[in-house]
Amino acid sequence: MAQRRPAAPAGGGAQAVGHASLRRANLALVLRHLREEGSCSRSDIADATGLHRATVSNLMAELLGRGLVREVGIEHIGAVGRPRRAVALDGSHVGVLGTEINVDYVAVYGTDLAGRVLVERRVGFDAMGMGPDRSLKELGRVAKEALDDLTASGAVPAGIGVAVPGLVDVARGAVSFAPNLGWRDLPLAERLQAEIGDGRAPVMVDNDANLAALAEFTGGVAAGTPDMVYLTGEVGVGGGIIVAGALLRGADGFSGEVGHMPVDPTGSRCGCGRVGCWETKVGLAALVSSATPERAYGLGPAPDPEERVAEIAQGLAAGDPRVMAAVAEVGRWLGLGGSILVNLFNPRAIVLGGYFAKLAERLIPPAQAELERLVIAGPAARCRFLASGLGFGAASRGAASMVVEQVINDPTAIGSAPIASTTNLAGR
Amino acid sequence: MAQRRPAAPAGGGAQAVGHASLRRANLALVLRHLREEGSCSRSDIADATGLHRATVSNLMAELLGRGLVREVGIEHIGAVGRPRRAVALDGSHVGVLGTEINVDYVAVYGTDLAGRVLVERRVGFDAMGMGPDRSLKELGRVAKEALDDLTASGAVPAGIGVAVPGLVDVARGAVSFAPNLGWRDLPLAERLQAEIGDGRAPVMVDNDANLAALAEFTGGVAAGTPDMVYLTGEVGVGGGIIVAGALLRGADGFSGEVGHMPVDPTGSRCGCGRVGCWETKVGLAALVSSATPERAYGLGPAPDPEERVAEIAQGLAAGDPRVMAAVAEVGRWLGLGGSILVNLFNPRAIVLGGYFAKLAERLIPPAQAELERLVIAGPAARCRFLASGLGFGAASRGAASMVVEQVINDPTAIGSAPIASTTNLAGR
User: Domain span at residue A329?
Assistant: First the structure.
């Protein structure tokens, strides 16, 4: 798993750190090293991290106690030299659950810490019709089942990530506004915790596009690309932005709201009430109304988006000129909005999700041409549109990745019998 | 100096690090700690960084040898306990030079590592009339004088930062395109080094808006705000973006090109050849042509921008309705473009430089109102337009800050007599 941005250093940075947080940082440093390198000896780790060998041994005792690493036996390196006892990351006893709640489905994706998939499920669902209370009950029910499945596989759940299509206050775990779910000011983490009831795993919430971007970055078509943008393609269009190998969240967690960039002051009115938002040019409703106007959506939730996209794909395959022109026009606007993203972020890739991915073959050529015409740095700023291969699973996968990162950043949150060494603060 | 993003950790992150780079990372860790904390004992540093005490003593010997820290005598903490020998950052022997080359001036700003200002000068100049060769000669002459001044103050120059209004390939130190200087594909670092001749300090180049943003972040009106955007306000409009406490550079160093976001498909033609760029709405030429059309600029470089802005300020003071309407209109477009930045980055502040700062009192109210109307997260994404107080010095100050960061990140580049401990690799 590529992660360019380094882990928080042991005690570096602006703020003074206490001994407990220093120990957490050092545990994370060791875990990240094991994740990158595979098996290592304790002295390899000491050499690579600059930590004292006694400190590494002490940290390792805690990680062994928490079931996060395991001894992998004796290794012999080269013809001479002492054999060494190696350790490796062991995630098999720790489970993470990613979930996504969207307009017409709930998805779950559970793995162990090493990335082995233990649960993957998608359940149809009508969020708008159900309202927030019944939606939360349904999400709680599906999550509880998945947690039971994780537990049955021997992986104790360490956390639940939830992806939501809307503005999320990440610090509070609350949804500020999710127009397509009809949610406003919903303390989702708290409410879901209450639904699940047993408090076995903390809940973290983020925007679906942010989490899909994280999934693309950790294991998708742009895996390891430190500067990239992910675009959801639904009736609404959201963005998740990776900058220098980390998710850009902004001051309040409201970054990446690409759908409402004003790009045409004489354009049509958006569902948000403003005029000329990018979404009115490239969202699914815009495409449907020009490609297949007899199917055009009114206001409110969009029924059967997959069916609409399938019809458009059929129109393309049949060479229907109206459909072809409509798709090309969306492609050009995709390139125009993409040029704003490239002028501002200078990413290496813009990954297209949702319906964009399904029509990528016909959308990308006009989008790429328009992008190249409009980007001010010209060909020097090399950026390609790429179609996502993760499909509907992207956001729930990303939600699981978020929990994995959380576990690595604070391994002390993983339950274990108290071990003797925890009285030795700060790893010495 | 606030820096939220932590220093690179000792050996953490994805890539395996060699002993030399591990030692550099540990030296930087110690220097950053001293910069944040002021004076400390070696054992404080060991506690805070997790490094072994012997390692800290060894690193400290090197930093003392390079003149980057100094012993500050004995400190007594509390009523009991042993007295301790403290050390502190000592930047007085190390100089940094920031320079800016712009359309009509060259500026220099030289400090020691501790931030004491040793040189500050601005020299009038006609970049377009002179062409690249003579411009470089002039920049070289001014920089050489400033280096001599630094040296005369006892500060050995550690590096020269150059701010350029254009697209910069930071890794190569080359200017890809600077339309207002008439430069294209100019290997500036190499050429300036040759002008200066004696190789006494390496040259680093970056975009003027990026460096002004860095100056605002380290010591301006938005100092320490981890998520902020800086806008230059000239005939061209550039942006520098700070994300999570660090300058956003993008994959090729071409980020922050706000001036050419397409915001009006039926708008007027931009100097870049495209249509409806934000610059055609908020750049100085746009304002002059609607506020004082008899002064409107043609194509090519804009003469006397400061005079034009002064005339507009007079028109405002006199209550000239045409001028007032023109400024309000620019304010509204500033808010519209600002809403794109807030939707994407969710910054806490947008700092207005250049002519925007001079007319801030009349520009900010309509800009702020339009911003709040258009931002999709509404009042939850709190972002204020603020007027820069750094004036023309912002970019050269930021160029100096860039060199300071470089020195902290790699203290081994600072010359010193070889010291015994350098054979002990990796700090032990």
Answer: 224-389
